[in-house]
Amino acid sequence: MKKKIKINKIKQIALKIIKRQGYNETESRQIFDMRLFAQLRGNDHGFVGLFGWNPDKDKNAGEIKTIRETKLSALIDGNANSAITVMQKATGLAIQKAKVSGFGIVGTKGTYNSTGAIGYYVKQIAQENLIGMAFSGCDAYVAPYNSNEAVFGSNPMAVGLPTKKDPVVLDFATTGMTWHDLTEKNILNKKLTPGRGYDKEGKPTLDPKAVMDHGASRIFDNTYKGSGLSFIIEALTGPLVQAAAFGILDEDADWGNLVMAIDPELLMNINEYKKNMTKLIKRYKKARRLKGVKELFYPGERGNRMSERCLKQGVVEIEEELLEKMVAEAKA
Amino acid sequence: MKKKIKINKIKQIALKIIKRQGYNETESRQIFDMRLFAQLRGNDHGFVGLFGWNPDKDKNAGEIKTIRETKLSALIDGNANSAITVMQKATGLAIQKAKVSGFGIVGTKGTYNSTGAIGYYVKQIAQENLIGMAFSGCDAYVAPYNSNEAVFGSNPMAVGLPTKKDPVVLDFATTGMTWHDLTEKNILNKKLTPGRGYDKEGKPTLDPKAVMDHGASRIFDNTYKGSGLSFIIEALTGPLVQAAAFGILDEDADWGNLVMAIDPELLMNINEYKKNMTKLIKRYKKARRLKGVKELFYPGERGNRMSERCLKQGVVEIEEELLEKMVAEAKA
User: Fold this and answer.
1) Chain A to chain B, count of Cβ pairs less than 8 Å apart?
2) Less crowded by CB within 10 Å, the N or C end of chain A?
3) Residues 132-161 of A with CB under 8 A from B
4) Which of B68, B220, B283 is nearest residue A151 as measured by Cβ atoms?
5) Percent of chain B at pLDDT above 90?
6) How far apart are CA A190 and CA A192, in angstroms?
């Protein structure tokens, strides 16, 4: 069951938890903003992430450092900080560079948890009238096509495109099941859809726990296409950014991310481009629908709609159990 | 049945046909090179493409013009030339710009046929130690997820990554059936796999001809993920590059393409990056395989293998009927 709660109220509760996890004022606000964005969209990376993988600030976290920089690019060492704050810094830098030079690409290494919804970062880029692209790496728990052994991470990709109104934001994981899906099914004692998971010996399993214990999830489309895409994302978030967590499951290996911003003005006038986007969106929206389908949503539209509906009332929808858990944690 | 034929021999035959189609020496060589690349890989865009959509040089073809240019970018008007020669020019420009500035992005508009296999172009980029990305647009014949009406083109994407040896080259269409698949099934009088195609009224059909006659193919994975990816590619190859063929089927509308080259040195030392790539490839190759699977291929590897085997013998494999057709056409 979902419940509506005032955003001001959940902000107080969440910030208490985040600060207790060791984050300063700025970091806490950044983490909260990403979680609220995701929660408002019914995305996996909402407030449940406060209890997710490595949520506490690492005792060894140092300064976020830029270890390589050019006019168009930077490589950032997250130095064990929250991936959310590191990715936020990377996004800001990519925007800044693209605004000056037309293109910005920033890689991050040295983090050990999730950036959350990467659609959040490319949306910020698109809101600056730039095309945003982002890719995220993590430990291996996804088997390539034709394999039953974990080699890839969940390997999401996100693209944000500016329009006259809300940006188009595509954000999807190339795994058939996210870590969140597995955790949730495990807690609720639910079985997996057949054909989606393997245990550590590579045997098909319906048990989420068996997948989480050195087993593997299938690729989203179960073909060479999705698997190839995941391979590319593994390369862009490991080899290309000096992060160690590629091809392997190793808690000591750092995770990598990549974010890019491209100025459409490199190719054409932004207003002409936006006019074209309006035309494409209109055409798409009025396409004939399959029976029972009420509306065709362009990437990110459904999330925007959900989000706006709540924001108008100043509320956010949240699972009752999660809210209770947060309230208890904030009081503790 | 496939037959082996000396590359020198097929080159003579193909060049005769291509020149007869109105192309000059340089254009003919570029078209032949792309077709040979595809043929050697068993890719759809091999010599069969000589008889494909708009193969002849357009009577109205003018000069290929750069209509916008910056240090990092160019927008090219193909001016009704072959998309292969236009994409080849765009690729060369993207490489040149990335070598000087670290990044190059080139859009094309004003063409009315297919660039062929876009893996061909990103491979050239990767061979220059740059990361290549390419996207191609065309007329609409693919329905978005939840729709049964054509809005998208086949919308392929390709990524090329440099390695110590052969580049990794991913190249796939976001449609469930390519135009080539449909044409081939139509000629051979074969039925479509159920659930893959719609006729012009949106009714499910097994008839390839019904799909080709203002019907629609399904998205490759039949989910919002593949559909979202196709939407993004539609935007990058239409609205972003001033090409008119987006969201519609209109023979008068020009098709667009986008190609990018990114220098890995923007983020890290190329040799370190390549060492990492070797590690990723090795890890991937030794992953446990599903029963009956002899080998796991990284993106582009199978094609490279096929290609090398033939190149060593100086031959190419070709369908007997296609060869006969080519021989007849060359003599005509």
Assistant:
1) 202
2) N
3) 143-144, 146-149, 151, 159, 161
4) B283
5) 96
6) 7
| Residue A198 CB-half CA count within 13 A | 25
Q: Is the pLDDT of residue B249 over 90?
A: no
Does B270 contact chain A (CB < 8 Å)?
A: no
Structure tokens belonging to residue B60 = 């109205």
Nearest CA in chain A to B238: A276
Q: Rounded distance, CA B203 to CA B210, Å?
A: 10
Q: State pTM to two decimals.
A: 0.98
Residue A146 and residue A161 in contact, taking contact as beta carbons nearer than 8 Å: no
Correct CATH for A1-57+281-332 of 2.60.40.10, 1.20.1250.20, 1.10.1530.10, 3.40.50.2300: 1.10.1530.10
CATH architecture for the domain at A177-217: 2-Layer Sandwich (3.30)
Annotated domain spans of chain A: 1-57+281-332, 62-174+220-269, 177-217
Enter the ipTM. Answer: 0.97
Per-residue pLDDT tens for A17-55?
A: 999 999 999 999 999 999 999 999 999 999 999 998 899
Q: How far is B264 from chain A (nearest CA, A)?
A: 7
Task: Dump pLDDT digits (tens) for B129-169.
Answer: 999 999 999 999 999 999 999 999 999 999 999 999 999 99
* Test the B interface: residue of A288, A293, A297, A298 with most B CBs within 10 Å: A288
Residue A318 to chain B, least CA–CA distance (Å): 24
Contact A151 B284 (CB under 8 A): yes
Nearest to A65 by CA among A76, A73, A57: A76
For chain B, say whether A328 makes contact (Cβ under 8 Å): no
Main-chain dihedrals φ then ψ at residue A318, nearest 5 degrees: -145, 145
Are B225 and A220 an interchain contact pair (Cβ–Cβ within 8 Å)?
yes
Which two structure tokens, joined as six digits, stand for A163? 């329009």
What value, to the nearest 5°, has the Cα angle with vertex B311 and ends B309 and B317? 75
Q: B182-186, long-range: CB within 8 Å, 24+ apart, which pairs?
A: B182/B208, B182/B211, B182/B212, B182/B217, B183/B52, B183/B208, B183/B212, B186/B212
Cα–Cα separations (whole angstroms), residue B147 to A291, B143, B151, B157: 9, 6, 9, 22
> Which residues in chain B are contacts of A268 at CB distance < 8 A?
68, 75, 107, 240-242
A250 vs B236, residue with greater confidence: B236
pLDDT band at A250 (very low <50, low <70, confident <90, very high): confident
The confidence band for A251, taking pLDDT boundaries of 50, 70 and 90, is confident
B239·A284 Cβ contact <8 A: no
Question: Could you tell me the pLDDT band of residue B99, with boundaries at 50, 70 and 90?
Answer: very high
**DSSP secondary structure letter of residue B195:** T
Distance, in Å, from the CA atom of B227 to the CA atom of B199, rounded to the nearest integer, reads 19
* Chain B contact for A198 (CB, 8 A cutoff): no
Whether A82 and A27 have beta carbons less than 8 Å apart is answered as yes
Cross-chain Cβ contact A247/B107 below 8 Å: no
Q: Angle between the B119-127 and B83-101 helix axes, to the nearest 10 degrees? A: 30
pLDDT (0 to 100) of residue A249: 86
For B217, the 3-state DSSP assignment is: strand
Q: Is the dihedral of CA A39, A159, A183, A302 positive or negative?
A: positive
Question: In this predicted model, what pLDDT tens digit does every residue of B182-221 receive, in sequence order?
Answer: 999 999 999 999 999 999 999 999 999 999 999 999 999 9
* Topology of domain A62-174+220-269, CATH: Ribosomal Protein S8; Chain: A, domain 1 (3.30.1370)
A228 and B148 within 8 Å at the Cβ level: the answer is no
Residue A257: phi, psi to the nearest 5?
A: -145, 160
Residues of chain A neighbouring B105 (CB-CB closer than 8 A): 103, 262, 266-267
